[in-house]
Amino acid sequence: MNNQQQAPILEVDQLNVRYGSFQAVKDVSFSVHSGEIFGLLGPNGAGKTSTLSSIEGLLKPLSGNITVAGFNTQEKPLHAHANMGVQLQATSFQPELTIAEIIRLFAGIYGVDLNNETVKEKLVEINLLDAAGKKFGELSGGQQQRVSLVISTIHDPQLVLLDEPTSGLDPQSRRQLWERIEGIRGKGNAVLLTTHSMEEAEAVCDRIAIIDHGRIIAINTPQALIDLHRNDPEVLSVVRKGKVTLEDVFIGLTGRAVRS
Amino acid sequence: METRIPKTTAVMSALLRADFTTLWRNRRSVRLVLLVPLVILISWKGLVDKLGGVFVLSSCITIGLTSIGLMGYSSAIARDRDKGVFQRLRVGPVSSWTIMISRLSAQIAMIVLMTILIFIVGFYVDKISITPIGYVAGLLMAMVGGAVYLSLGQAIVGRVKNPETVNSTTRLVYFVFIMVGMFGELEMLGNEIGQVVAWSPYGVVRKIQAGSLAPGAWKLETTYALLLSLGYTLVFAVLGIKWFKWDSK
Predict the structure, then answer these.
(1) Closest residue to B92, CB basis, from A81, A94, A158
(2) Which residues in chain B have their CB less than 8 angstroms from residue A57's CB?
(3) Number of domains in chain B
(4) In a domain, B249, yes or no
(5) pLDDT tens digits for B52-109?
(6) Which of these CATH numbers, 3.30.420.10, 3.40.50.300, 3.30.450.20, 3.40.50.1820, describes A10-220?
(7) How far off is chain A from B173, nearest CA to CA, in Å?
């Protein structure tokens, strides 16, 4: 059966988020299916993180429904959380704890029984066995992202939410992380990620949604978006080197103005 | 697919292990928090005959409780909130109250440790000896008194978002409580200030502490102080919970 025909792992329906008088997210709807990597793209302040925070339960939406693995995030937050793994944009852990202790803490929180051997296995999996006794703050950016990802997936969740996971990483670390993200998809789980990188969206995402001023303005596979918009005057006006790329489509649809 | 929610006991155990490890790794700041009441206890050795052993012990325990609630608890909460530690925990299948109960448990352990240390130093250095019931009641009442300052710390960390401002605010409140509280109770600041201090969070906690250390001397005034302590705790806790935001942004 095609994944798209199955019940979605994540369903966002008519989501609205407001901060005071500013409406950050307007009637956003989309769904993510198992075995799919779905990218949420948008300029700064477009509403990506607000959408993600609403799914994670960190933000109370003004209206709309979010279901994760069939559980409404407002009505059954613990059930929804148990089915999702989250990597926040700026992850931090208690600075006094070692990496092994952090892994054990989150294993306990997600109800996963880890003994010393299985903690070691997790560390070997991310090439950080030597760092078991180090503090999170002592790791490089790439190592921190690997730890965050292993914690996000420690309970093998059906949905993994990644907020700008490769931001600030060198090309090697970024490639390695992409492979890990693809590994999650390979297991049949779904991934929702936000990114500013069009290269990343094209490289790993099966479908993407472009969000701007709180609204989804396009949603499709990266190639289909290029094909659909390659002749748009706004897109043609920003094309460089003759070939239409996803970045051209993105800038064509969201405008050239720099966002704060 | 069936969704398995982790047992609260398993989650609590993981959180407690992490919070107590954090407390242990912060031994230096723990020592600093304990230092002030112990220094006062030792330096007041010559005043025990004049002020009475129960007054000295209850004053030192009250000062220790103020340190734990205002400096230890609120600073740790402000720092972790600012770093996003709570947000990372809250995206897991864990209720907010579980996170807070674990944090408070670590502080209760601190209160027990501080009170026992004061009893031991008081006994060996200041030669203060009270009845076994007094020790047990004093330990239990330290938790009631601790609740006043933990909830006050919660109210401050709820109202103030910036961790640096939380630090400076709690230090200021701590300084005022200690200086005005101690001098006021010793009637060095006049009768009116003395009366205000007597029914302030400092005064009522000191009173119930003294009442518990010498249960035979428990008076109606001590009962009023106990009721007022519970009242202060309730008001500060309600404000602290109402104002508190998990995110400092």
Answers:
(1) A81
(2) 90-91
(3) 1
(4) no
(5) 999 999 999 999 999 999 988 999 999 999 999 999 999 999 998 999 999 999 999 9
(6) 3.40.50.300
(7) 26
